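Issue: ligand-bound run for zinc ion - logging full I/O for the record.

Environment: standard queue, default settings, no custom constraints.

Inputs:
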Amino acid sequence: MKNIDNCPFCSLGNRVIKENKFANLFLSNPRKVPGHFLVTPKRHIEKPWEMTVQEAQAVFELVLFVQKRLVKHISKGSDVLQHYRPFMKQDHIKVNHIHYHILPRDFNDKIYQVVEKYETEDFFEELTATESDEMAAILL
Ligand SMILES: [Zn+2]
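Outputs:
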């Protein structure tokens, strides 16, 4: 279900910092850390795979641009994230219009301290041959 009328990413106004023909770059508000950027296709799209090749190219042009700038000016590393979670209701934090998060990352940073330090090695499991075959089969 489209929700263009209430979509904050369809009416960014002066929040846009940089743009190209098919995508916008702007700061997340609210944000997790300073330098938390978002990139969206200009067209309201909720499923990432519904972007055209031109839109995907335009989005990743801005994603890679800001990632490079973050590493040059703010942090040693960065994360790029995209969440597709139609099972969650849209609110002021969760927006259905596709967006890619670009976050500055450093050793022991706020994101590590608040979230990731609780992801211990126990979270990871060895990949089995059966699981590998099952997951490969969904690609056929
Ligand atoms: Zn939208």
